Amino acid sequence: MEFETWMLIGIPLFFAMGWITARVDIKQLVSESRTLPRGYFKGLNFLLNEQPDKAIDAFIEIVKFDPETADMHFALGNLFRRRGEIERAIRVHQNLLSRPDLPAEEQAHARYELGMDYLKAGLLDRAEETFNGLVETPYAVQARRALLEIFQREKEWIRAIDAARGLQESGAGARQKEIAQFYCELAQDALVHLHIADALALLDKAVHTDRKNVRATMLTGDAQLAQGDVEGALMTWRRVEQQSVPHVALVAGRLMDGYRKVGRPQEGVNLLRSYLAEASSIDLIEVVFKAVIELDGVDAAKELVVDELRRNPTLLGLDKLLEARLMDAPANIWEELSMVKNLIHGYTQKLARYRCSHCGFKARQFYWQCPGCSNWETYPPRRTEELNVMN
Fold first, then answer.
1. Is 374 left (phi over 0), alpha (psi -120 to 50) or beta?
2. What is the rounded CA–CA span in Å between residue 196 and residue 220?
3. Average per-residue pLDDT in the chain?
4. Strands 354-355 and 362-363
5. What is the pLDDT of residue 217?
């Protein structure tokens, strides 16, 4: 009975408290909305209706009549930057920074936005100077990310390593993959200039940073080959299989050339055939196909391609089969077969692309860093048609 009495008293009381709270919130919301300029709602409406030109005009009117409105300056500057009107965005953010009464937090925000304007405009020196001034502010993480982008654009890999480590230490996420790639960039430059010892030392750092880094393994083999250690290079390149089986296609040509140099080409073919059985790839087929023709003849090469087509039917594989057929085709059908081959080959050129898994950017060659989105290791080592077949 006591419980029922409490319920009779308590439930109306809770409803009353909720009603009072809602009324207070609504009154506050109405009061705050009345203080906003009418142009704000006009601009917001234009943005929602995807009319950025009219939105910009509305926000410019607000800034003219109320130049102290910092939020409007930020909104206007961002709109200009998105539209590619970088000079106007820079002026908006510089105008904000010229105000002596601007609070410290909004000053940091304005400096960050100005740095982003400079970065978008390609004024990397100014952008770097601006972001360096933000590393001790609440915008430190965003500034370090921007600095990392700048150092990568300028190919200043040592500074990029320091920036990436700074991001890691600030708790902004792991950066081992990128740091290992920066070491690889330095090592590749050292290899170009035949500084083999320096390259090996840098690659050792890359592997210790990211043990799954296939590129470091491949470049280590290249450095060993440059020293004349072919057997050592072969052993190193074979380690790619332990890191990532699909990536063996990228090292197949190196392996086959290495086995030729040590006088054991058949061992190389057998090894690559075993890789092919585990991870079919048109790039791998290409290397094995040429080696089989060289060692075992055209019939063995045709049999190889037919077997692969049965397992993974693709136009890329068919193009390779037609190439093999043309090698010993009778004269009376050679011309017709050649026409079919050319048609298939022309179409497969559109399919024989690598595609970034992050942004979808397609390229004829394999990249460790996507030219489209600048992310690292986002290209699968298979062509687009092969990926579509697998899916």
1. left
2. 10
3. 80
4. antiparallel
5. 97
Q: Evaluate whether 377 touches 368 at the Cβ level (below 8 Å).
A: yes
How is the chain split into domains, by residue range?
A: 67-173, 353-391
Query: 60: left (phi > 0), else alpha (psi -120 to 50), else beta?
Result: alpha
pLDDT above 50: residue 34 = no
Instruction: For 354, list phi and psi in degrees, rounded to 5.
Output: -90, 145
Query: Is the CATH number of domain 67-173 1.25.40.10?
Result: yes
Q: What is the 3-state secondary structure (H, E, C) of the chain?
A: CHHHHHHHHHHHHHHHHHHHHHHHHHHHHHHHHHHCCHHHHHHHHHHHCCCHHHHHHHHHHHHHHCCCCHHHHHHHHHHHHHCCCHHHHHHHHHHHHCCCCCCHHHHHHHHHHHHHHHHHHCCHHHHHHHHHCCCCCCCHHHHHHHHHHHHHHCCCHHHHHHHHHHHHHCCCCCCHHHHHHHHHHHHHHHHHCCCHHHHHHHHHHHHHHCCCCHHHHHHHHHHHHHCCCHHHHHHHHHCHHHHCHHHHHHHHHHHHHHHHHCCCHHHHHHHHHHHHHHCCCHHHHHHHHHHHHHHHCHHHHHHHHHHHHHHCCCHHHHHHHHHHHHHCCCHHHHHHHHHHHHHHHHHHHHHCCEECCCCCCEECCCCCECCCCCCECCCCCCCHHHHHHHC
Above 60 in pLDDT, residue 256? Answer: yes
Q: What is the pLDDT of residue 330?
A: 73
pLDDT at 383: 77
Cα(245)–Cα(223) distance, integer angstroms: 22
What are the C-alpha distances in Å from 250 to residues 59, 189, 198, 287? 53, 20, 24, 10
- Mean pLDDT over 135-164 rounds to 93
Summarize the confidence of residues 79-105 as an average pLDDT.
81
Compute how many other C-beta atoms are within 10 angstroms of the C-beta atom of residue 84: 10
